Amino acid sequence: GDIESHHKLHDLRVLCVAWAPSVLQVLRVQLNAWGMRTVESKGLNALELLRKAKAEGDPCRVVIIDFNTKGVDGSKLAMKIKGDPELAEDIPAMLFLVPLRSQHTVEAEVRLLGEVEVVAKPLRQTRLGECLTTLLGLSWASSMGMSMSMRLRRSESNPKQDDANKPHLHVLVVDDNVVVQQVAVRMLQKLGCEVDTASGGHEALTMMTKELFDIIFLDVMMPVMDGFEVSQEIRRRERHNAVARGEKDSQIRIPVIAMTANAFKEDEIKCLNAGMDDYLSKPIKISELRAAVAKWSTQVQMNKKLHPTSPALPPSQNTSPAVSPVPASPIVQSHQYARHS
User: Fold this and answer.
1) Is residue 17 pLDDT above 80, yes or no?
2) Are 216 and 171 in contact, with CB atoms under 8 Å apart?
3) If DSSP codes are grouped into helix, strand and coil, which group holds residue 300?
4) Residue of 199, 203, 164 whose CA lies nearest to 184
């Protein structure tokens, strides 16, 4: 039969966190229908159960958290799970169950946690299946909401081939929110990147005088010095250093990718006018990061060929920030607007 039919959701382990027995029962019935194995918690021992599952060599791939769980703050529990050193490479995907009236509020609250899904109650099996397969990087095909086929990500179906193709880039993540930093770092490390972080614009620029970064992921809204100012300063230093090398225009252009919670066309234009090359909407998804890294790898290789050991951006004589808009990169032929989800 179809090779895709060999990959099933069955046998995957899921931790269900809910106070109400009725919610746990609904989840158990729906997940067991696909052959998934459920571990159940009323909340307080959730992290302990995840650690135990990993220690047994059978980690939970997904955690489903009912936001109405008594005595449990869903966001804080998710942050504890994502930041737990014992789980390390086995941090599960997160799915939150919320009352329909609270859906938008909860989505705003958990959006900084990275790749999560929010599902409104009452729970529909088709919707649950779509969210699970999205989180796990599988494809969902349904017939009357019950049958499905999955296609594993290439990185899961052939890990050795994927490791050989990983870009091995040195990137800098600039964001004043520690949670966003941690989530981005883990995703980029999974893509084979070496990652450094900075919590503000001035710190980032200082780091760039000492190290060579291949790509900069830059939060737009930061205190003191925002992402627009940082990007303009990077481009101004590139131009200054080009003049110092006797070049008319800088041939080295470090890809700068904006990260922002705003998803409006005018924000995209503002980013490009500030000298940024690309644009990702928060919460950042690993699929979008993977696409961005692949997209800008050509420019990175070009930079390395031109000046393989060049320090990133030594500060130029004139330290005043650039004020005029910087033209968008000539290598950007058509900018893919990042969809906000």
Assistant:
1) yes
2) yes
3) helix
4) 199
**pLDDT tens-digit series, residues 177-193:** 888 888 888 889 888 89
Which residues lie across from 96 on neighbouring strands?
65, 118
Instruction: State the Cα–Cα distance between residues 66 and 46, nearest whole angstrom.
Output: 12
Burial class (CB in 10 A: 0-12, 13-18, 19+), 218: buried
The number of C-alpha atoms within 13 Å of 71 and in the hemisphere containing its C-beta is 8
Q: Are 294 and 257 in contact (CB under 8 A)?
A: no
| pTM reported for the whole predicted model | 0.49
Distances (CA, A) of 64 to 31, 92, 283, 305, 339: 11, 10, 18, 47, 25
Q: Does the pLDDT of residue 316 top 90, yes or no?
A: no
Cα–Cα distance for residue pair 83/178, rounded to 1 Å = 11
Q: State pLDDT tens for residues 127-151.
A: 888 888 878 776 544 332 333 322 2
For the segment 81-98, what is each residue's pLDDT rounded down to a tens digit? 888 888 877 788 889 888
Is 267 within 8 Å of 275 (Cβ atoms)? Answer: no
φ, ψ dihedrals at 328, nearest 5° = -65, 155
What backbone phi and psi angles, to 5 degrees, belong to 282? -80, 145
Distance of CA 87 to the CA centre of its chain: 18
Q: What pLDDT is recorded for position 247?
A: 76
Q: How far apart are CA 171 and CA 95, in angstroms?
A: 29
Most confident of 15-29, 63-77, 162-176, 246-260: 15-29
Q: Which residue bears the tokens 């649950």?
A: 128
Residues 94 and 283 sit within 8 Å (Cβ to Cβ): no
